[in-house]
Amino acid sequence: MLDISPVSTPGTVLAECPIWHPAEQRLYWTDIFGQAIHRLDPATGTSERLLMPERINSFGFRSTGGLVAGCWTGFGFIDLAAATVEKLWDLPAEQPGFYLNDGRCDRAGRYWAGTVCEAHDRPGAALYRLDRDGSPDRMADGGLTSNGLAFSPDDRTLYYACSVGGIVWAFDFDLADGIVSNRRVFAELHRPDGAAIDSDGCYWIASFGRGEIHRVTPQGHIDRTITLPTTQVTMCAFGGHGLDTLFVTSGTLRLTEEQGRRQPLAGAVFAITGLGTSGLAEPFFRG
Fold it and tell me: Which pLDDT belongs to residue 117?
């Protein structure tokens, strides 16, 4: 039987980027506007909140320890013990008003993240690849709002979404060279946000504003929808001992006062069990 339960305190304006650490058996996520990284031990309920010197919009684990991150203004390395950010690269100055958003590592140890137009009024968002030596490359353009990054289990497809446009694209992906090609529409959804891939190659995507998580088959068909007790769901990730729990972040962003009263769990992180499927371990950045 499907069970949906909050595992954190509600009220976060914008929780994002849940990611499971398999060795630690802990869930990490970012509180973007609170400038903090959270980590939770679901077995004990112990939670930590680590304040950061700037907004962290997405991140991945580094093989040498700490995090690689898509910060508000560019890529950086995070030392969690010292709560410091070592900036590697800043977004181009000729594109003011854009910031890094959704991101994740590929299985060759590179980090990918896309940009967002903060005012949602200008195209020009892009997908960047951070190589293991710390050098960035612009790999694709994405409209207004980059989201939904994920890699298929066979490493032959990269998924990338524009939330405002309601489109998820699929690219052919070359893992060895980190090259994308043959862009095509994979699915059209209401405000696709953060995503995850399960062991069957299905794409799980949060629909911001509707409180839904959709499972999309590799052929681009929605075959399952789960409704959460808040509309502002942001991203999902598989975790737990068997990677069979789906963790979902949410926020209170753009909720009216009346909507907030009707959604007392808005801004919490949720754990969904009883799915009958499992996910894949997230790769680490190798630089």
Answer: 86
pLDDT at 38: 98
What pTM does this model have?
Answer: 0.97
| pLDDT at position 141 | 87
Total Cβ atoms within 10 A of residue 98: 22
Would you state the structure tokens that stand for residue 147, as one six-digit string?
Answer: 């989201």
Separation of first and last alpha carbons in the chain: 42
Residues of the chain with pLDDT under 50: none
The reported pLDDT for the residue numbered 118 is 82
Q: What residue spans define the domains of the chain?
A: 3-273
Nearest by Cα to 103 from 65, 137, 152, 147: 147
Q: Which of 207, 245, 251 is nearest to 10 (CA)?
A: 251
Neighbour count for residue 133 (Cβ, 10 Å): 7
**Beta carbons of 278 and 243 less than 8 angstroms apart:** yes
Could you give the angle at the alpha carbon of 121 between the alpha carbons of 116 and 123, nearest 5°? Answer: 60
Query: CATH classification of 3-273 is 2.120.10.30, yes or no?
Result: yes
Q: Which two tokens stand for residue 39?
A: 């980590």
Spatial separation of the C-alpha atoms in residues 44 and 21, rounded to whole Å: 15
Q: Other CB atoms closer than 10 Å to residue 130's CB: what's the count?
A: 26
Catalytic residues: 193
pLDDT score of 94: 67
